[in-house]
Amino acid sequence: MGKTNFIFIITLLLGLVQANAISLRFKSKIFSSGPDIYACNAGVASAFLQNSVCYFKGTKNFCTPTSCSTAKENCNTNCLCIDKGGQGETYVNKLLLKYKAYNTTAVPVAFTKNAAGPKFEAVFSSADSWNREISDVATHFMTEAYTGSYFIDICYRGTQIPNGGGYFVLSSEASAIPFLVTDLLGYGSFDNNRNGLDFNVVGEIYTEKAGLTVERHIVCGTSSATSDFIINGTSGVPSGPVSGATFYNSSAEASLRASAQTVSHGSTIDPKFCKVRYIFRETNWKSALPLQRDNKGEGAEVCTYTKISDPSQE
């Protein structure tokens, strides 16, 4: 076989091998966006007593102090009065918190908000609240009667990826565990810090004396602008959803105790933004004979649990 023929045969065989080769270059993309949930706003209010209330100190029996409204000769009634007060009285109820800009590593900033009357005073505007992340909240109620209220908003951001219309179940829980303040450190307790607090409380407890209650409101939408509440101009309480919201639900006011109270708000399709408002109120001031706020340092650790989940995970 000549050299030329040999080269021809080799070339032919290589061509046959190459003719049987196959390959594909293919690329794909990964999109990642998960949900997030965080405390984003808070507010405080203080009710006005409708009338001055007087009772015999130590007995809680009603008394009329007209005969000894000042120090007079025959004053022997030992009659204790809680005046209905005015605007200035409410300022002693205040809310303390720490917050930072949402989704940043900034150091939380401390802030104090004083009550200015029965209308809730929010720390942030509805629009700004989505970009605020609260880490700690404490309320200091110091009025003569149990007239304080406050709220906490929980903001939910769903995945930014359209998920094809899945339904999500919305539910919430709230509880209040009473405590006594045993040290001045207790008044600075935030979040998981329990220094100066005793949770082994016996006898009368704060939650019962105050008549502490909770109610909840939730709104969802496709954007932060359509996921908010219409706020009553007199009370500062949500009265419904803003235009464009896809879901709204509210619960009745209920007593708040140490055992968790659960509320099922229903389900909604593919929530992108939701806001849950928990409103906590001292209601004893509405009683025919409101109690005087106890002088001893006490309170309650209020816990909320907000869940927005795929029903298949239930």
General description of the model:
- The chain has 314 residues and is mainly beta.
- The chain has four helices and 19 strands.
- It has helices spanning 3-19, 87-90, 126-129, 206-210; strands at residues 36-46, 53-56, 61-62, 79-82, 94-101, 109-114, 121-122, 132-140, 148-157, 167-181, 197-198, 213-221, 229-231, 238-241, 247-250, 254-255, 261-269, 273-281, 298-309.
- The strands form five sheets. Strands 1, 7, 9, 12, 15, 16 and 18 form a seven-stranded antiparallel beta sheet that branches.
- A hairpin with a 4-residue loop joins strand 2 (53-56) and strand 3 (61-62).
- The chain starts with a helix and ends in a 5-residue tail after the last strand.
Summary?
By secondary structure, the protein is mainly beta.
Rg computed from alpha carbons, rounded to a whole number of angstroms: 31 Å
Task: Give the strand tally.
Answer: 19
**SS strand fraction:** 35-45%
Number of helices: 4
Structural class: mainly beta
Q: Average pLDDT across residues? A: 86
Biggest sheet: strands, sense, closure? 7 strands, antiparallel
The helix-strand sequence is HEEEEHEEEHEEEEHEEEEEEEE
Give the overall shape: elongated
Question: How many structural domains?
Answer: 1
Low-confidence stretches: none
Task: Tell me the distance between the termini.
Answer: 80 Å
Helix content class: under 10%
Describe how the helices and strands are arranged.
Elements: H1 3-19, E1 36-46, E2 53-56, E3 61-62, E4 79-82, H2 87-90, E5 94-101, E6 109-114, E7 121-122, H3 126-129, E8 132-140, E9 148-157, E10 167-181, E11 197-198, H4 206-210, E12 213-221, E13 229-231, E14 238-241, E15 247-250, E16 254-255, E17 261-269, E18 273-281, E19 298-309
Antiparallel strand pairs: 1-7, 1-9, 2-3, 2-4, 5-6, 5-8, 9-18, 10-11, 10-17, 10-19, 12-15, 12-16, 12-18, 13-14
